[in-house]
Design brief:
Blueprint (H helix, E strand, L loop, with lengths): L25 E3 H6 L11 E14 L5 E11 L4 E3 L1 H9 L9 H16 L4 E4 L11 E2 L20 E19 L6 E15 L1 H9 L8 H16 L3 E8 L5 E8 L15
Parallel strand pairs: 6-7
Antiparallel strand pairs: 1-4, 2-3, 2-10, 3-5, 7-8, 8-9, 9-10
Length: about 270
């Protein structure tokens, strides 16, 4: 079974000079979900991981370079997640490969990524727009003292069952660390819910408690979702994190109660 320590993360690797789908490195989602006591057969959420690829290049049928961008949508119920450095290396391996048409390249991407994730992966060329104005309400300007930065503490969360709310909250202060290299990962997180009113001070303290936590983007969002689900027992819940770019890629995991509409594809100004 693949583990993060088996991947190319944190290691010096040679630049790929030819197409190599074997560079893609899958990691079983069950590894991260075991700590959340989640079984894939009874996941409490639906969702996806939306990847933005800013550095996509190949050669056309005549050998002329072509550049573009792409969006990949990996379903949250796929058995495997795709390790980010391996995806970057795989995309780099396309730089010297010829494809007769963009459609031929897209078909190859769909085939390789779906095989790695063990589920159908959607591939489209181009990126969603950057949206500067956000209807979500920021919780970051609260004046409060914080002295704890980990581990993530669901016990910090508070809600008032006597007051019902339907709102979308945002924080730009989410930070976690790569579980292999220790490098920081930065994100904006949006929480849409309907249920007992969340105490915003407690929510901000909780999100900041990820600051020294080591976990993949997808695993952090699933932890936030399951902790909020246990605290609120809401009628509706959606959690999306938009991580900043690293290595020409950014990852945007989204998890929600079944039946919730997915967020409109968009990028933050920081992305």
């Amino acid at each position: 079974m693949n583990t993060p320590q088996d991947s190319s993360l944190g290691r010096e690797v040679a630049y790929p000079t030819r197409y190599d789908p074997g560079l893609l490195f899958p990691i079983p989602r069950a590894q991260g979900r075991a700590g959340l006591r989640l079984a894939d057969a009874a996941l409490p959420f639906t969702g996806h991981d939306r990847w933005h690829a800013y550095e996509l290049a190949w050669l056309d049928g005549q050998g002329k370079p072509v550049v573009d961008t792409a969006t990949f949508l990996v379903p949250a119920d796929s058995p495997q997640l795709i390790e980010s450095k391996s995806l970057k290396l795989y995309l780099n391996s396309l730089n010297a490969s010829r494809f007769d048409s963009p459609q031929a390249l897209r078909a190859r991407l769909v085939e390789d990524l779906s095989r790695t994730a063990q589920a159908p992966v959607e591939v489209t060329f181009g990126l969603p727009p950057v949206i500067a104005e956000d209807t979500a309400e920021s919780i970051d300007d609260q004046p409060l003292e914080i002295n704890s930065y980990g581990p993530p503490d669901a016990g910090l969360l508070r809600a008032d069952p006597a007051a019902q709310a339907s709102e979308t909250l945002r924080s730009d202060l989410l930070k976690s660390n790569c579980p292999v290299t220790g490098q920081p990962d930065w994100a904006s997180v949006r929480i849409r819910y309907r249920g007992p009113r969340l105490d915003r001070t407690s929510l901000l303290r909780y999100l900041v408690s990820f600051r020294d936590h080591s976990g993949f983007h997808e695993q952090c969002v699933e932890r936030i979702f399951t902790d909020l689900l246990a605290c609120l027992q809401p009628q509706a819940l959606s959690v999306e994190a938009r991580y900043t770019r690293r290595g020409g890629l950014d990852i945007n995991p989204w998890r929600a109660l079944p039946g919730e509409a997915p967020p409109s594809p968009a990028r933050d100004p920081r992305q």
